[in-house]
Design goal:
elongated, about 40% helix, 5 strands, five-stranded mixed β-sheet, about 10% strand, single chain, transmembrane, alpha/beta, about 200 residues, membrane
């Protein structure tokens, strides 16, 4: 009986079709994760020509150590109380020039929301989850105050207005109307959140 030889060529005509179908399948079904960053304004590259003098009472110091403990204005504070303390600082209106502030008007605390700065400093070994939680509470303090003023002026929440303004699907006429409102609220309580150099101790 004669031996059967190997076929002269392998029919691979359908392999390209299969590979193409698999490629389409994976492109359609795969989800690409996008990391959301923190919305922060970086300092300018060149320092300003004139030194800006900032009074110590206008700086709200928040320190996180490597154990996740919070030191706010030299007092040990629970994270759950951080937002309330930040709001009290931002809304103080100590110099009497803020007509919309509802704080204690303590002359030893911040003069005006436009002058108030929150300084955040963390240890190099601070847990990322703790750092983000503290960030959320501080940003939440700004949002709470902005929501209050947006309700007073426009009967809407600031966060809803800002989300609608930043939504690419929002009509340009609506965006133009929202732009001035969003900026007006942001100017009442400008987000001045400064991150000090990380400590190594």
């Amino acid at each position: 009986m004669p031996k059967r030889g190997a076929p002269a060529e392998v029919n691979a005509g359908s392999m390209a079709d299969i590979a193409f179908l698999l490629l389409i399948f994976f492109l359609v079904t795969t989800t690409i994760e996008t990391d959301a960053g923190l919305d922060r304004m970086l300092p300018p590259i060149e320092p300003p020509e004139n030194d800006v003098v900032i009074k110590q009472k206008n700086i709200f110091e928040v320190n996180i150590n490597k154990n996740g403990q919070l030191l706010v204005e030299d007092q040990l504070t629970e994270i759950k109380n951080l937002r309330e303390r930040a709001i009290a600082f931002l809304d103080n209106g100590g110099d009497g020039t803020c007509t919309y502030c509802k704080g204690a008007k303590n002359t030893e605390s911040s003069d005006n929301p436009t002058k108030a700065i929150i300084s955040l400093k963390n240890d190099r070994e601070t847990k990322y989850s703790t750092y983000i939680t503290v960030q959320n509470e501080l940003v939440g303090a700004y949002n709470d105050l902005r929501n209050r003023e947006a309700q007073r002026l426009f009967n809407r929440n600031f966060t809803d207005m800002e989300a609608e303004y930043l939504n690419p699907e929002t009509e340009s006429s609506v965006k133009d109307e929202l732009k001035d409102k969003v900026k007006r609220i942001q100017d009442l309580f400008p987000q001045k959140l400064s991150e000090a150099e990380t400590s190594t101790n």
